Every structure is written in C-alpha cells, then in structure tokens.
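FORM 12-B: Structure-to-Sequence Request
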C-alpha cells in the first residue's frame, strides 16, 4: 500500500486538532508535519516534501493563496488543498489560479477532506460540493427578460 504524506497548516489549534484526527484515521495517510503560519508551513513543506499540503487560506505571515503560488513555482508535483470559510467564486478562482488542486470548506471538512485528498492524489481537482452549486449558478447565463416599452408618442 502506498502512503500519502501530508502536511497540515492552520492557525486555529482546534481546527488543526480536528484535521490531525481525520488524517490519522486513514491507514494510507501519514501526517509528516503541522504548521500554524504561512511562513512556518513554507519551511516545513520545503523540508518534508509531502505529497499533499492542506492549507488554511487565512493564515498569518503568508496566506494560503500566496503560499500556494510560491509552492506551485517551487514544487509543481505538490498537490495543494485549501481549507476556507469563503464560499464565493472570487476566492475559488484565486485559489485555482494559484495552482490549488482542492478547495474544501471548513464547515464540511469532516465529510469532504479525505475525499479531496484522494481526488487530488489521482490527478483530479476537488471543489467542495457546498460551493459547486453556487459557482455553477453564478456562472450560468441568466434568461433575458422581455422588456416592454410604450410606443413613442407622435
């Protein structure tokens, strides 16, 4: 069995504890390090060379988007997943443009994080189901409204 090596980075201890428990519950996942800031995560990822980095978007010193951009340039084979409270398309687009392969909402991480890690490990891109509906509705063309005008007076 191949083991997926994972680094976690989140500045909230309770979130980090929950993520740690999710990762450790999977026999084929190995937690190789944890960080509580963007700069600490960068140093740890460079040192440990994990398969997957799970990053909070909103971290001190270096946020998850900026960190993802840096990592994409340095380690193109690294699969980055971001965890976020942000459910709008602008954040999703920034993350994808930065090279992120997975976008997981914190509110559904318990249900979706393991699936997201597995999806990116086989080369896929994972977008949390909680945001997919919003994105597809927001980008769908809206039906044109028929506007009626009164005829010009003569």
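FORM 12-B RESPONSE
SEQUENCE OUT:
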């Amino acid at each position: 069995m191949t083991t997926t090596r994972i680094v976690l980075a989140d500045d909230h201890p309770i979130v980090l504890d929950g993520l740690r428990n999710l990762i450790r519950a999977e026999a084929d996942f190995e937690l190789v390090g944890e960080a509580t800031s963007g700069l600490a995560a960068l140093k740890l990822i460079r040192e440990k060379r994990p398969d997957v980095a799970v990053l909070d978007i909103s971290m001190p010193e270096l946020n998850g988007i900026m960190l993802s951009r840096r990592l994409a340039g340095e380690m193109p084979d690294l699969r980055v997943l971001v965890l976020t409270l942000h459910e709008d398309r602008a954040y999703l687009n920034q993350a994808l443009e930065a090279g992120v392969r997975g976008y997981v909402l914190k509110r559904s991480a318990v249900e979706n994080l393991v699936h997201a890690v597995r999806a990116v490990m086989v080369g896929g891109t994972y977008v949390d189901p909680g945001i997919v509906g919003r994105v597809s509705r927001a980008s769908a063309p809206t039906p044109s409204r028929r506007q009626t005008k009164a005829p010009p007076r003569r």
